[in-house]
Amino acid sequence: MPILEFSGVTMSYGNGAAGSRGRTAALKDVSFVTDEGSFVLLTGPSGAGKSTLLKLVLASERPDAGTIRVADRDIHRLRKSSIPYLRRNVGAVFQDFKLLPDASPLENVALALQVLGLPPAEVDLRARRALTDVELDPNTRRSSRCLSGGEQQRVAIARALAGDPAILLADEPTGNLDPRLSREILDLLQAVRARGTTVVIATHDPLVFEHVEASQILTLAYGRLVADTAAVAPMPADAPAGMPSAVSIADTMSGAGPIGAVA
Amino acid sequence: MRVLHSMRYVTQRGVRGMAQAPLVQLLAVATIAVCMLLLGCVLLVWQNARSIADRWGVDVPVTAYLVDDVPADRVAALVERIAALPQVERVDVITPELAMTRLVEGLGDDPTLVAGIDPSVLPTSLEVMMPPAEAATAETLAAELAAEPDVEDVVAAGTWVARAQALLETLRSIALGAAALVGFACLTIVWSTIRLAVYARRAEIQILRLVGGTPSFVHGPFVVEGFVQGALGAGLAVTLLYFGFDAVEPLLADAFALAFAAGGLRFLSPLECAAVVGFGAALGVLGSRAAVARYVET
Ligand SMILES: Nc1ncnc2c1ncn2[C@@H]1O[C@H](COP(=O)(O)OP(=O)(O)O)[C@@H](O)[C@H]1O
Ligand SMILES: [Mg+2]
């Protein structure tokens, strides 16, 4: 069952009409399909469009062209009032975590449950469980700004998972962590996937490719999807021939060479 | 159920947000209170002017008291004749019983005062209504009526009726103008305070949106804040006005003893007080809604 489907998605930033000058193209004609329960690595050098792709899934940006389907619904056809409900079904871990700095981990996680209108006792119970799942102490009263990067990352993951979403998006989840913490976080994300949640990680960290068993690897370069290990149809003409393996992509990433050199 | 829980979270966040900037809240409430105090003063003056005018019968230009025991058919004929005059709008017959009822109402506080009065000692009277434009001719009409054989005495309110009515009109316009001005001022105060609050808590707003908060969930706390500011400000104004009135009323009552003879000054009724507080709260809600509506971001 496909849970995430991009077809012909083009997106650019800036003011002015789509396609006009003065707009930065971030994604160009991106198409792929992801099955439910997959573990997807979205990769490509800095500026390739990874974060943009995640923002489109959350409907916090709109595509200029193309359609995006989440759980078989065209999300940019949704009425504005339906977007909150989409977001409750898509948990997101942001690169900068986006935690309330003065609130405790428990309060931060509780936010994602309060928006659901759950009773306070249930909010508390589920927030505690989510924190325990990521191996954090739910009783700590420290504000989030006093936590280490790894701890903040865990709080962000707990918040994203607290509402039991169908998809978990994580943008550079190992970006600010040392290798030991990175492995812990990646193990955690694999455990999430083992529970049936679809996980999509945007990363250009070679360690992720070594450590994670991905079911699909999407490679972006300059806004184009240049490789998709799950694609059955041939890639566009300007993509490299053949399917790159996870390892070869990881090599490319660490070498920071142009993607075109993979083939 | 979910709605109730959501409202609870929204209120909690609103209160917590206010607690984060207590000085700003205090300033907003105080400024709104000053504005509403102005409005309250104008309302108070207008209301009292109206009730004094009522008590003095300003709305009845000419009253003719009849001699005792005029037969009903002669009364009816007289009424018909007066009503036919071009400057007369309407003639009301005040029977002794009706006069008694009015007396009891007027002395409302102490019915024992009228307990011994027999209605039949009160005369029948005719209240001659004239349109405000004809009020100046009241004296002439009074003289004509005094010549009637069945009429014992005539009281004409005279030209000052017209003046009193004009004054009431002016007071009413001032009250409306003050309400508009104060409304605009309070809206502006709430709007700018909430804009600052929205700016200060923009990170929280963004997070709530990203985790799936609906617009009313995300904006609700700010509307709560505006509501509280408006209601507290207006409530404070009504309280201050009450104590101010209490302090000033005895002085005025001494100075204008004659004018207030029929029943003294009165404070705004509970309903009017509630209306002022409600007006403040409504302004708070409107101002804060306008402030958050402008803050569009996905
Ligand atoms: N908010 C923005 N406004 C304008 N340009 C942006 C914005 N965000 C990203 N971009 C541009 O879009 C392109 C893709 O960025 P991004 O999706 O962040 O890439 P990645 O996450 O792969 O590093 C880059 O050229 C970047 O400069
Ligand atoms: Mg990025």
Structure in words:
The complex is a heterodimer of chains A (263) and B (298). Chain A has 263 residues and is of the alpha/beta class. Chain A has one domain (37-60, 88-254): P-loop containing nucleotide triphosphate hydrolases (Rossmann fold, 3-Layer(aba) Sandwich), CATH 3.40.50. Helix content of chain A is 32%, strand content 24%. Chain A is built from eight helices and ten strands. In chain A, helix 3 crosses helix 4 (120-133) and helix 3 (105-114) runs parallel beside helix 5. The longest helix of chain A is centred in the last third of the chain and has 16 residues, at 179-194. Chain A is globular and about 50 Å long. Chain B has 298 residues and is of the alpha+beta class. Chain B folds into two domains: 2-55 and 163-297, no CATH class; 62-156, Alpha-Beta Plaits. Chain B is 67% helix and 7% strand. Chain B is built from nine helices and four strands, in the order H-H-E-H-E-H-E-H-E-H-H-H-H. In chain B, strands 2-3-1-4 form a four-stranded antiparallel β-sheet. In chain B, helix 2 packs antiparallel against helix 6, helix 6 (160-200) runs antiparallel to helix 8 (215-255) and helix 8 (215-255) runs antiparallel to helix 9 (270-293). The radius of gyration of chain B is 28 Å and the shape is elongated. At the A-B interface, helix 2 and helix 3 of A face helix 1 and helix 7 of B. Bound molecules: adenosine-5'-diphosphate and magnesium ion. Adenosine-5'-diphosphate binds at residues 13-14, 24, 26, 44, 46-52 of chain A.
